[in-house]
């Protein structure tokens, strides 16, 4: 019997979690949803997170709050709500 294929979510859970810290203010990151999970769609030029986050990185948490099932709009509003302070963004990168 061939091994059962892992679901998309199981594959993501096996990847190492990485963190970036976004400074207060706008961060110039557009979020989209892929397979029901929030992903980085685009990082604007001159964003403080340019060269740290990449398109298709899956956002799993913001300030250690689970964000893996949130819509793109909810992730964005969570970031905006906390705009006056540093935010910890946890993500996984599928290579």
Q: Which structural class do you get from the secondary structure elements?
A: alpha+beta
Order of strands, widest sheet: 1-6-4-5
Q: What's the number of helices?
A: 2
Uncertain regions: pLDDT < 50 for 5+ in a row? none
Shape descriptor: elongated
* Straight-line distance between termini: 28 Å
Give the percentage of residues in beta strands.
Answer: 25-35%
* Proportion of helical residues: 10-25%
What is the average per-residue confidence, as pLDDT, rounded to a whole number? 92
What's this, in brief?
The protein has 95 residues and is an alpha+beta fold. It has helices at 8-14, 72-81, and strands at residues 18-22, 29-34, 37-43, 58-62, 65-66, 87-92.
Report on the architecture of this protein.
- It is a single chain.
- With 95 residues, this protein is an alpha+beta fold.
- It is 18% helix and 33% strand.
- Strands 1-6-4-5 form a four-stranded antiparallel sheet, with helices on one face. It has a two-stranded antiparallel sheet with strand order 2-3.
- Strand 4 (58-62) and strand 5 (65-66) form a beta hairpin.
- The longest helix has 10 residues, at 72-81.
- The protein is elongated, with a radius of gyration of 14 Å.
- The model has no long low-confidence stretch (mean pLDDT 92).
């Amino acid at each position: 019997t061939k091994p059962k294929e892992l679901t998309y979510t199981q594959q993501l859970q096996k990847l190492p979690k990485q963190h970036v810290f976004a400074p207060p203010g706008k961060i110039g990151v557009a979020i989209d949803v892929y397979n029901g999970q929030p992903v980085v769609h685009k990082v604007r030029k001159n964003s403080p997170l340019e060269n740290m986050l990449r398109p298709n990185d899956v956002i799993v948490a913001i300030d250690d709050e689970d964000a893996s099932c949130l819509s793109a709009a909810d992730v964005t509003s969570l970031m905006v709500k906390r705009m006056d302070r540093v935010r910890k963004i946890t993500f996984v990168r599928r290579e």
